[in-house]
Amino acid sequence: MNIWDLAEQKIEENKRKRNANNTGNDIYLFHKDPQEPIESYIVIAGYPKTGKTTYLNRFLGNEITINPTTILEYSFGYRHRDSYKDIIHTWELSVDHNLSPLLQVPLIKNHLQKNIGLFIFFDLTKPETIWILIEKFLKNGIQKIESITKDDNQLKDYLEEFSWKRIGGRDVENMISFKMRNQKEGKIFVIVLDF
């Protein structure tokens, strides 16, 4: 069995668990109480002209004229569900790797305690820049998260446990590390980013 078969098997297991525990719509998967409004945060970062704004506008359902992003832009979207308003806050960061500290702007304690996701867009015509971009953004993101959690062990434990829960539990860590130790063909890099 290769790593891809193992990953597919784990996805199917998680779907079965989710369906067994799901009382309603899948939109509540990472939310504790479906009877409360859902508030989520997305950070989209990457080089100019990689499709960040187009992706974001399609996601939010905006049909506005696309203008180039100026460094860091905020937008939001919402929808009504029953008597609740679900809100998504988005930050779009269009920079080169020297401006990656701006990634720390949307990473605040309140956002980390809710649903937050980071998307990094790459210019595949310049493959030499991909790893540089990932390293810079990870370094700045991790520094910010560590500065927030250094005095709050309860938040640190909560974030770690919630992250493991989102990807299927700690057995995923053991499964991946075991598979990577026993992999004989080439190198495999598994990066899980979850704040």
Task: Please summarize what this structure is.
It is found in: Cytoplasm, Cytoskeleton, Cilium basal body. This protein has six helices and four strands, in the order αβαββαβααα.
Helix/strand layout:
Blueprint: H1 3-21, E1 39-46, H2 52-60, E2 72-81, E3 84-94, H3 109-112, E4 115-121, H4 130-149, H5 153-166, H6 171-181
Parallel strand pairs: 1-3, 1-4
Antiparallel strand pairs: 2-3
Organism: Strongyloides stercoralis (Threadworm)
Keywords: Cell projection, Cilium, Cilium biogenesis/degradation, Cytoplasm, Cytoskeleton, Developmental protein, Dynein, Microtubule, Motor protein
Family: Belongs to the dynein light intermediate chain family.
Alpha-beta classification: alpha/beta
Per the CATH scheme, the topology name of the largest domain is Rossmann fold
Q: What order do the helices and strands follow?
A: HEHEEHEHHH
Low-confidence stretches: 24-31, 175-195
Number of domains: 2
List the total number of helices. Answer: 6
Outline: globular
Q: Which architecture of the largest domain per CATH? A: 3-Layer(aba) Sandwich
DSSP strand content: 15-25%
What oligomeric state is this?
single chain
How much is the radius of gyration in Å?
18 Å
